[in-house]
Amino acid sequence: MEILGTILTNNKLLGAIFSTIFIILLGYFLRKKNIVDDKAGKTLSTILLSVALPALAFNSFMTNITPETFTTGLNVFIFGFVAYILLIIISKLLYIRQKGDRKDTLEILTVFGSTTFFGIPIINAVLGKTGTLYANLFNIAYRVFLYSYGLITMSGVKFETKNLKQILLNPIIIATFLGLVIWLTQPYLPQVTVMVDGEAASFAFLRIDQTLPWVFQGFTYLGSLSSPLAWLAIGMTLASISISEAVKEKLVWVYGVMKLLVVPCIFLLIMFALNATFLPLGYEAITAIMIMLATPPATVAVAYAINFDKEAIFASNASLLTTVLAVFAIIGWIIVMTVLNTAGILV
Protein backbone atom coordinates (compact mmCIF):
# COMPACT_ATOMS: atom_id res chain seq x y z
CA MET A 1 0.00 0.00 0.00
CA GLU A 2 2.87 2.35 0.78
CA ILE A 3 4.36 1.78 -2.68
CA LEU A 4 0.95 2.32 -4.31
CA GLY A 5 0.54 5.54 -2.34
CA THR A 6 3.93 6.75 -3.50
CA ILE A 7 3.00 6.10 -7.13
CA LEU A 8 -0.41 7.77 -6.80
CA THR A 9 1.21 10.89 -5.34
CA ASN A 10 3.96 11.05 -7.97
CA ASN A 11 2.74 14.08 -9.90
CA LYS A 12 5.41 13.77 -12.59
CA LEU A 13 4.43 10.18 -13.38
CA LEU A 14 0.70 10.85 -13.24
CA GLY A 15 1.17 13.99 -15.34
CA ALA A 16 3.08 12.07 -18.00
CA ILE A 17 0.44 9.32 -18.14
CA PHE A 18 -2.47 11.77 -18.26
CA SER A 19 -0.76 13.99 -20.85
CA THR A 20 -0.04 11.01 -23.11
CA ILE A 21 -3.63 9.76 -23.08
CA PHE A 22 -5.23 13.22 -23.19
CA ILE A 23 -3.21 14.56 -26.12
CA ILE A 24 -3.58 11.31 -28.11
CA LEU A 25 -7.35 11.54 -27.59
CA LEU A 26 -7.25 15.21 -28.60
CA GLY A 27 -5.48 14.30 -31.85
CA TYR A 28 -8.06 11.56 -32.41
CA PHE A 29 -10.91 14.03 -31.85
CA LEU A 30 -9.42 16.70 -34.15
CA ARG A 31 -9.06 14.23 -37.01
CA LYS A 32 -12.34 12.39 -36.39
CA LYS A 33 -14.30 15.66 -36.49
CA ASN A 34 -12.38 16.78 -39.60
CA ILE A 35 -11.06 19.84 -37.78
CA VAL A 36 -7.75 18.89 -39.42
CA ASP A 37 -7.39 17.02 -42.74
CA ASP A 38 -5.89 13.59 -43.37
CA LYS A 39 -2.46 15.09 -44.09
CA ALA A 40 -2.10 16.73 -40.68
CA GLY A 41 -0.69 13.67 -38.93
CA LYS A 42 1.95 13.16 -41.61
CA THR A 43 2.91 16.84 -41.49
CA LEU A 44 3.31 16.73 -37.71
CA SER A 45 5.39 13.56 -38.04
CA THR A 46 7.70 15.25 -40.55
CA ILE A 47 8.23 18.24 -38.26
CA LEU A 48 8.79 15.89 -35.32
CA LEU A 49 11.40 13.73 -37.03
CA SER A 50 13.26 16.49 -38.87
CA VAL A 51 13.26 19.28 -36.25
CA ALA A 52 11.79 18.56 -32.81
CA LEU A 53 13.38 15.18 -32.04
CA PRO A 54 16.84 16.23 -33.31
CA ALA A 55 16.63 19.27 -31.01
CA LEU A 56 15.54 17.05 -28.12
CA ALA A 57 18.43 14.65 -28.80
CA PHE A 58 20.96 17.51 -28.85
CA ASN A 59 19.50 19.17 -25.75
CA SER A 60 19.79 15.98 -23.70
CA PHE A 61 23.60 16.17 -23.96
CA MET A 62 23.73 19.75 -22.68
CA THR A 63 24.48 18.61 -19.14
CA ASN A 64 27.53 18.11 -16.95
CA ILE A 65 29.38 14.86 -17.45
CA THR A 66 29.90 12.86 -14.28
CA PRO A 67 31.58 9.50 -13.66
CA GLU A 68 28.13 7.96 -13.15
CA THR A 69 26.50 9.32 -16.32
CA PHE A 70 29.62 8.57 -18.38
CA THR A 71 29.80 4.96 -17.18
CA THR A 72 26.07 4.37 -17.57
CA GLY A 73 26.01 6.09 -20.96
CA LEU A 74 28.88 3.92 -22.21
CA ASN A 75 27.18 0.80 -20.87
CA VAL A 76 23.90 1.75 -22.57
CA PHE A 77 25.72 2.38 -25.87
CA ILE A 78 27.42 -1.04 -25.69
CA PHE A 79 24.24 -2.77 -24.55
CA GLY A 80 22.37 -1.25 -27.51
CA PHE A 81 24.38 -3.37 -29.96
CA VAL A 82 24.19 -6.43 -27.72
CA ALA A 83 20.43 -5.91 -27.32
CA TYR A 84 19.72 -5.87 -31.05
CA ILE A 85 21.76 -9.02 -31.61
CA LEU A 86 19.75 -10.66 -28.81
CA LEU A 87 16.50 -9.30 -30.25
CA ILE A 88 17.29 -10.87 -33.61
CA ILE A 89 18.02 -14.24 -31.98
CA ILE A 90 14.95 -14.09 -29.70
CA SER A 91 12.63 -13.12 -32.56
CA LYS A 92 13.83 -16.11 -34.60
CA LEU A 93 13.04 -18.41 -31.67
CA LEU A 94 9.63 -16.84 -31.02
CA TYR A 95 8.47 -17.41 -34.58
CA ILE A 96 10.35 -20.63 -35.33
CA ARG A 97 7.14 -22.29 -36.56
CA GLN A 98 6.44 -19.57 -39.11
CA LYS A 99 7.80 -19.81 -42.66
CA GLY A 100 8.88 -17.59 -45.53
CA ASP A 101 7.83 -13.96 -45.81
CA ARG A 102 5.57 -14.08 -42.77
CA LYS A 103 8.46 -15.27 -40.59
CA ASP A 104 10.75 -12.51 -41.87
CA THR A 105 8.07 -9.85 -41.36
CA LEU A 106 7.22 -11.02 -37.84
CA GLU A 107 10.89 -11.00 -36.87
CA ILE A 108 11.60 -7.52 -38.25
CA LEU A 109 8.45 -6.00 -36.73
CA THR A 110 9.42 -7.51 -33.37
CA VAL A 111 13.04 -6.36 -33.45
CA PHE A 112 12.41 -2.79 -34.59
CA GLY A 113 9.92 -0.71 -32.62
CA SER A 114 8.99 2.92 -33.06
CA THR A 115 11.60 3.94 -30.49
CA THR A 116 12.19 7.43 -31.85
CA PHE A 117 8.68 8.57 -32.75
CA PHE A 118 6.74 6.74 -30.05
CA GLY A 119 9.24 6.00 -27.28
CA ILE A 120 11.55 8.98 -26.80
CA PRO A 121 8.79 11.61 -26.33
CA ILE A 122 7.34 9.49 -23.50
CA ILE A 123 10.80 8.89 -22.03
CA ASN A 124 11.43 12.63 -22.02
CA ALA A 125 8.13 13.25 -20.24
CA VAL A 126 8.75 10.57 -17.59
CA LEU A 127 12.52 10.59 -17.07
CA GLY A 128 13.64 14.00 -18.30
CA LYS A 129 17.02 14.91 -19.80
CA THR A 130 19.08 12.04 -18.36
CA GLY A 131 16.66 9.35 -19.52
CA THR A 132 16.51 10.95 -22.97
CA LEU A 133 20.32 10.98 -23.14
CA TYR A 134 20.45 7.24 -22.43
CA ALA A 135 17.62 6.58 -24.91
CA ASN A 136 19.48 8.35 -27.72
CA LEU A 137 22.68 6.43 -26.97
CA PHE A 138 20.75 3.13 -27.06
CA ASN A 139 19.08 4.19 -30.31
CA ILE A 140 22.35 4.49 -32.23
CA ALA A 141 22.49 0.69 -32.54
CA TYR A 142 18.81 0.69 -33.52
CA ARG A 143 19.43 2.81 -36.59
CA VAL A 144 22.52 0.84 -37.61
CA PHE A 145 20.60 -2.46 -37.54
CA LEU A 146 17.35 -1.04 -38.99
CA TYR A 147 19.02 0.24 -42.17
CA SER A 148 21.31 -2.77 -42.55
CA TYR A 149 19.93 -6.04 -41.15
CA GLY A 150 16.30 -4.90 -41.44
CA LEU A 151 16.64 -3.79 -45.06
CA ILE A 152 18.66 -6.85 -46.11
CA THR A 153 16.16 -9.27 -44.51
CA MET A 154 13.12 -7.67 -46.11
CA SER A 155 14.56 -6.81 -49.52
CA GLY A 156 16.99 -9.67 -50.06
CA VAL A 157 19.60 -7.26 -51.43
CA LYS A 158 23.11 -6.60 -50.17
CA PHE A 159 24.01 -3.63 -47.99
CA GLU A 160 24.97 -0.62 -50.13
CA THR A 161 26.79 2.67 -49.54
CA LYS A 162 23.55 4.63 -49.92
CA ASN A 163 22.19 2.79 -46.88
CA LEU A 164 25.19 3.98 -44.85
CA LYS A 165 24.39 7.54 -45.91
CA GLN A 166 20.80 6.99 -44.80
CA ILE A 167 22.07 6.11 -41.33
CA LEU A 168 24.68 8.86 -40.98
CA LEU A 169 22.71 11.72 -42.56
CA ASN A 170 19.57 11.21 -40.49
CA PRO A 171 18.93 14.51 -38.60
CA ILE A 172 18.48 12.69 -35.28
CA ILE A 173 21.75 10.77 -35.69
CA ILE A 174 23.59 13.98 -36.61
CA ALA A 175 22.16 15.79 -33.57
CA THR A 176 22.94 12.80 -31.32
CA PHE A 177 26.57 12.55 -32.41
CA LEU A 178 27.06 16.32 -32.24
CA GLY A 179 25.64 16.44 -28.73
CA LEU A 180 27.61 13.33 -27.73
CA VAL A 181 30.92 14.81 -28.87
CA ILE A 182 30.27 18.03 -26.93
CA TRP A 183 29.19 16.06 -23.86
CA LEU A 184 32.28 13.83 -23.89
CA THR A 185 34.84 16.52 -24.69
CA GLN A 186 33.53 19.35 -22.50
CA PRO A 187 36.27 18.98 -19.83
CA TYR A 188 38.93 19.47 -22.52
CA LEU A 189 37.38 22.32 -24.53
CA PRO A 190 38.19 26.01 -23.94
CA GLN A 191 36.28 27.16 -20.87
CA VAL A 192 34.10 30.23 -20.44
CA THR A 193 33.22 31.75 -17.09
CA VAL A 194 29.54 32.59 -16.66
CA MET A 195 27.33 33.55 -13.74
CA VAL A 196 25.03 30.81 -12.45
CA ASP A 197 22.69 31.76 -9.61
CA GLY A 198 24.91 34.68 -8.72
CA GLU A 199 28.13 32.65 -8.66
CA ALA A 200 30.91 32.32 -11.26
CA ALA A 201 31.21 28.92 -12.94
CA SER A 202 33.25 27.58 -15.87
CA PHE A 203 31.76 25.67 -18.79
CA ALA A 204 33.01 24.51 -22.18
CA PHE A 205 32.32 27.17 -24.78
CA LEU A 206 30.11 24.72 -26.73
CA ARG A 207 27.82 24.20 -23.74
CA ILE A 208 25.41 26.70 -25.23
CA ASP A 209 22.85 26.03 -22.50
CA GLN A 210 25.22 28.00 -20.23
CA THR A 211 27.37 30.12 -22.56
CA LEU A 212 24.60 31.17 -24.99
CA PRO A 213 21.35 30.59 -23.07
CA TRP A 214 19.39 32.87 -25.38
CA VAL A 215 20.37 30.65 -28.35
CA PHE A 216 19.71 27.45 -26.41
CA GLN A 217 16.22 28.68 -25.54
CA GLY A 218 15.26 28.18 -29.18
CA PHE A 219 16.47 24.59 -29.05
CA THR A 220 14.55 24.11 -25.81
CA TYR A 221 11.32 25.31 -27.40
CA LEU A 222 11.81 22.96 -30.37
CA GLY A 223 12.66 19.99 -28.17
CA SER A 224 9.65 20.59 -25.95
CA LEU A 225 7.41 20.19 -29.01
CA SER A 226 8.41 16.52 -29.35
CA SER A 227 5.96 14.95 -26.93
CA PRO A 228 2.79 16.88 -27.88
CA LEU A 229 3.52 16.62 -31.62
CA ALA A 230 4.11 12.87 -31.37
CA TRP A 231 0.98 12.26 -29.32
CA LEU A 232 -1.20 14.43 -31.57
CA ALA A 233 0.14 12.61 -34.65
CA ILE A 234 -0.56 9.22 -33.04
CA GLY A 235 -4.13 10.26 -32.23
CA MET A 236 -4.72 11.54 -35.76
CA THR A 237 -3.33 8.32 -37.21
CA LEU A 238 -5.62 6.19 -35.03
CA ALA A 239 -8.62 8.23 -36.18
CA SER A 240 -7.81 7.50 -39.80
CA ILE A 241 -7.64 3.71 -39.56
CA SER A 242 -10.03 0.83 -39.07
CA ILE A 243 -9.14 -1.36 -36.12
CA SER A 244 -11.96 -3.81 -36.83
CA GLU A 245 -10.05 -5.56 -39.64
CA ALA A 246 -6.81 -5.73 -37.69
CA VAL A 247 -8.33 -7.49 -34.67
CA LYS A 248 -9.77 -10.36 -36.72
CA GLU A 249 -6.46 -12.12 -37.32
CA LYS A 250 -5.24 -14.29 -34.44
CA LEU A 251 -1.56 -13.97 -35.37
CA VAL A 252 -1.78 -10.18 -35.04
CA TRP A 253 -2.74 -10.64 -31.39
CA VAL A 254 0.04 -13.19 -30.91
CA TYR A 255 2.49 -10.67 -32.34
CA GLY A 256 1.14 -7.92 -30.07
CA VAL A 257 1.63 -10.05 -26.96
CA MET A 258 5.16 -11.00 -28.03
CA LYS A 259 6.15 -7.43 -28.93
CA LEU A 260 4.64 -5.57 -25.98
CA LEU A 261 4.83 -8.11 -23.15
CA VAL A 262 7.04 -11.15 -23.76
CA VAL A 263 10.09 -9.44 -25.30
CA PRO A 264 10.19 -6.57 -22.74
CA CYS A 265 9.81 -9.14 -19.93
CA ILE A 266 12.74 -11.18 -21.27
CA PHE A 267 14.90 -8.09 -21.52
CA LEU A 268 13.95 -6.91 -18.05
CA LEU A 269 15.36 -10.16 -16.69
CA ILE A 270 18.48 -9.79 -18.85
CA MET A 271 19.05 -6.21 -17.72
CA PHE A 272 18.50 -7.16 -14.09
CA ALA A 273 21.23 -9.80 -14.45
CA LEU A 274 23.60 -7.39 -16.19
CA ASN A 275 22.85 -4.60 -13.73
CA ALA A 276 23.81 -6.87 -10.83
CA THR A 277 27.01 -8.13 -12.45
CA PHE A 278 29.38 -6.57 -14.98
CA LEU A 279 27.27 -4.03 -16.92
CA PRO A 280 25.41 -1.73 -14.49
CA LEU A 281 22.68 0.30 -16.19
CA GLY A 282 20.55 1.72 -13.39
CA TYR A 283 16.89 2.61 -13.06
CA GLU A 284 16.69 5.47 -15.57
CA ALA A 285 18.51 3.63 -18.36
CA ILE A 286 16.61 0.37 -17.86
CA THR A 287 13.27 2.19 -17.74
CA ALA A 288 14.10 4.09 -20.94
CA ILE A 289 15.02 0.84 -22.70
CA MET A 290 11.86 -0.86 -21.43
CA ILE A 291 9.71 1.93 -22.85
CA MET A 292 11.42 1.65 -26.23
CA LEU A 293 11.02 -2.14 -26.27
CA ALA A 294 7.25 -1.79 -25.70
CA THR A 295 6.64 0.45 -28.71
CA PRO A 296 4.66 -0.58 -31.82
CA PRO A 297 6.63 -1.56 -34.94
CA ALA A 298 8.74 1.09 -36.59
CA THR A 299 7.19 2.91 -39.53
CA VAL A 300 10.28 2.06 -41.59
CA ALA A 301 9.88 -1.65 -40.78
CA VAL A 302 6.25 -1.60 -41.91
CA ALA A 303 7.29 0.34 -45.02
CA TYR A 304 9.79 -2.41 -45.82
CA ALA A 305 6.99 -4.99 -45.70
CA ILE A 306 4.81 -2.88 -47.98
CA ASN A 307 7.54 -1.86 -50.44
CA PHE A 308 8.94 -5.37 -50.85
CA ASP A 309 5.51 -7.04 -50.78
CA LYS A 310 6.25 -9.23 -47.75
CA GLU A 311 2.99 -9.69 -45.86
CA ALA A 312 2.05 -6.03 -46.35
CA ILE A 313 -1.54 -6.43 -45.08
CA PHE A 314 -0.44 -8.36 -42.01
CA ALA A 315 2.26 -5.75 -41.25
CA SER A 316 -0.27 -2.93 -41.53
CA ASN A 317 -2.78 -4.71 -39.28
CA ALA A 318 -0.08 -5.52 -36.73
CA SER A 319 1.01 -1.89 -36.71
CA LEU A 320 -2.55 -0.62 -36.24
CA LEU A 321 -3.40 -2.92 -33.34
CA THR A 322 -0.13 -2.57 -31.46
CA THR A 323 -0.20 1.23 -31.80
CA VAL A 324 -3.38 1.19 -29.70
CA LEU A 325 -2.17 -1.47 -27.29
CA ALA A 326 1.29 0.10 -26.88
CA VAL A 327 -0.16 3.16 -25.14
CA PHE A 328 -1.48 0.96 -22.35
CA ALA A 329 1.51 -1.42 -22.40
CA ILE A 330 3.98 1.43 -21.96
CA ILE A 331 1.96 2.91 -19.11
CA GLY A 332 1.90 -0.54 -17.51
CA TRP A 333 5.66 -0.96 -17.82
CA ILE A 334 6.26 2.55 -16.43
CA ILE A 335 4.20 1.63 -13.37
CA VAL A 336 6.10 -1.68 -13.01
CA MET A 337 9.44 0.12 -13.18
CA THR A 338 8.26 2.74 -10.69
CA VAL A 339 7.20 0.00 -8.28
CA LEU A 340 10.61 -1.69 -8.61
CA ASN A 341 12.35 1.62 -7.99
CA THR A 342 10.13 2.61 -5.05
CA ALA A 343 10.62 -0.79 -3.46
CA GLY A 344 14.39 -0.39 -3.74
CA ILE A 345 14.73 -3.40 -6.07
CA LEU A 346 16.03 -1.24 -8.93
CA VAL A 347 17.85 2.02 -8.22
Distance between the termini: 20 Å
The number of helices is: 16
* CATH fold type: Na+/H+ antiporter like fold
Mean pLDDT: 90
Membrane topology: Multi-pass membrane protein
Protein name: AEC family transporter
Subcellular location: Membrane
Organism: Culicoidibacter larvae
List key phrases describing it.
about 350 residues, about 75% helix, globular, two-stranded antiparallel sheet, mainly alpha, Na+/H+ antiporter like fold, 16 helices
Brief rundown of the structure:
This protein is mostly helical and 347 residues long. 77% of the residues lie in helices and 3% in strands. Helix 2 packs across helix 11, helix 3 runs antiparallel to helix 11 (226-239) and helix 15 runs antiparallel to helix 16 (312-342).
Structural overview:
The protein is mostly helical and 347 residues long. The protein has one domain (2-342): Na+/H+ antiporter like fold. The chain is 77% helix and 3% strand. It has helices at 2-8, 11-32, 40-60, 67-94, 100-111, 115-155, 161-168, 171-185, 208-211, 213-224, 226-239, 243-246, 250-275, 282-293, 299-307, 312-342; strands at residues 191-196, 199-204. The longest helix has 41 residues, at 115-155. The model has no long low-confidence stretch (mean pLDDT 90).
